[in-house]
Amino acid sequence: MTRDLEPAVRDAWHVLCRSADLAPGAATRLRLLSRDVEVARNAAGTVSARLLDGEAVATREAYGHVFACLGTPAAPLFDIAEFAEDDRRLATCGAVRVRASGLRLVENFLDMAHFPFVHTDLLGVEERPEVPRYDIEIRRDVDEVWATNCRFWQPRAAASSAEGQMSEYLYRVAGPFAVMLYKTCPADPSRFDVIGLLIRPAEPDLSYAYAFVLVLDEASSETAIVHFQQTIFLQDRIVLENQRPRLLPLAPNAETPTRADMSSVAYRRWLKEKGVRYGTVEGLAGHGEAEGVP
Amino acid sequence: MSLVLHDWELSADAYRARLALGMLDLPYTKVPVDVVPGRETDTPAFRALSPTGAMPVLVEGDLVLSEIGAILIHLAERHDPAGTWLPREPARRARCLDRLLFALGSLRACDAARDAALFETPSRIADPLAEARAALRVLESLLARRALAGEAFLAGEEPTIADLAAFPAAALAVDWGEDLALLPKTRLWTRRVRALPGFTTMPGVPEFL
Q1: Is there a shared CATH topology between the A7-69 domain and the A81-287 domain?
Q2: Where are the transmembrane segments (chain B) (predicted)?
């Protein structure tokens, strides 16, 4: 039964697991949006999923992951055009469990101001904390939030970095629980590396984060690339687990943004416009299982 | 003889080895192992190095060690001429080994609690959270007794490999939701360990504990 879920969440695509974690003939149970979902791959390699109480749900396999939609898909799975470029390497980082709303994870991913303090000497240095002004827009044609013209000084921007660089960033929120960034590639400054964070919201305040990296990097081993992303994400995880409330408040006066938080302000406004309630403070009454709200 | 560590950034045991290598100021080469999500520790190639799949693995010439206790003892015996990290005097040595085995025994429940919180790794321990909290209380009590004796570290006045073995269990507790607020001696001791020359941090170790 998914009737109680708002369409903006019910009819969106959400990651279920990595493709590699589902061998032919295998089936596994996962939690998605407070429902138990069984996902299986048949001997021919085709993936299917159903709610444990019976109904089949739509699935797609792409970008090294399996996606599901619990309602009627409002749109095709978001396109990541760089997957068509065959000189790129994909590294999938697996699932990390986080006791926080998935919306908090997206918002943290969009934030540059924490780089010098949480990812010290990797994505930022404490001497250069300034977030230069960037542009933010809600692209109505594709229903996505974009932050463009972002710049940040990074001593070690990627696994392949030999030295610091002024990284250029574009952020793209492709779904309530799916976010990507495009960032200057250390190996080829004319192109962008793609880093994605796909979130499986298990409960309003419990998430599984699936990070992937689609890079131009012939030198680093896949394991080194994965370890770099895992290091970054584990640094974020401490902060995420200690944010209160665990759910994201959408009321404009609930938390005080600064200019560097323009992307967060736009993301929250977009969520509110779409009627997203799952994982928000405002949705608490509707879903009941969350805890940790003061 | 060059040292090679088959390593995973996020492993508490690998961190124990990196701490010892750092404190002893030993250069070494890291070989990253894809534990999560790749399960490389289950592959025949890795099992040839580490029969049980335990990691990290330390390789020094012909010597291949895959038990973290053996790695710490070996590094101290082979590379610490002053003999402070594993004392040679029998009583002090015995006390150091006593605390080392505690750190790699009961206190290991903290690693299980952390692995469950991060990756839902199954554990042989029935209730990792309860056992981890109980073991941290034992650590607190051990440190309190040392403090009454005027000693700053787990096995005496000087830090030993017992401290390095115990540190990740306590310092990474925030990863599984334990903030050490009620363990003041443990918090003070983690600050002492952090202040030692050659200390290295890892993701999950809070900047301010």
Answers
A1: no
A2: none
